[in-house]
Write a structure and sequence with these properties.
With 178 residues, the chain is of the alpha/beta class. 33% of the residues lie in helices and 30% in strands. The protein has a five-stranded parallel beta sheet with strand order 4-3-7-8-9, with helices on both faces. It has a two-stranded antiparallel ribbon with strand order 1-2. Strands 5-6 form a two-stranded antiparallel ribbon.
């Protein structure tokens, strides 16, 4: 399937989570077998072209796309988790959200120092979570040169912020607005 065909599978939900927001619901793409498989293949081709040695994805939808890409490429998957979810000693990073703070953690043993790790997530909006994940993975010794997203919301400038941190950003599709 083409990227335009995949884009047509993303549902627009008005006034969610607040009035005036047009939410881009990717569950309609994930639930479409052929569309989901094509989306994963598009992402996998880009990760392979970047010589990825591992894939990292942020909880929760980054797990869906990232793990599928890693499996297709025969690479390891590094889950970037919310706090308290891993049963081993972790390293973490606190980061700012629009309204408050959050934290991401990883098992540092999941990263081979110097390895090229590609970050994958479903959507980039303000970029806060992706920036925190890049910082955390770099702290663990990974090379983070590329982040892949299914959707970019360019009006929220997250991709620009991530590029400012030295990470190339590619998205399969863009939707203007919030």
């Amino acid at each position: 399937m083409t990227v335009d065909e995949l884009k047509a599978l993303v549902r627009a939900v008005p006034d969610f989570p607040a009035p005036g927001i047009l939410f881009r619901d990717i569950t309609t793409l994930i639930s479409h077998g052929e569309g989901f498989a094509a989306c994963v293949t598009h992402l996998a081709n880009r990760a392979k072209a970047a010589d990825a040695q591992a894939i990292a994805g942020m909880e929760a939808r980054g797990f869906i796309f990232g793990a599928a890409v890693a499996a297709q490429l025969g690479l390891g998957f590094v889950p970037v988790r919310k706090p308290g979810k891993l049963p081993v000693a972790t390293i973490g990073v606190d980061y700012a959200l629009e309204y408050g703070r959050d934290r991401l953690e990883i098992d540092p043993g999941a990263i081979r120092p110097g390895s090229r790790v590609v970050i994958i997530d479903d959507l980039i909006a303000t970029g806060g979570t992706a920036l925190a994940a890049a910082e955390l993975l770099r702290t663990a010794g990974a090379r983070i040169d590329l982040a892949l997203f299914v959707i970019d919301l360019p009006d929220l400038f997250g991709a620009e912020r991530l590029r400012g941190a030295g990470v190339t950003v590619e998205a399969l599709m863009e939707f203007s607005g919030h």
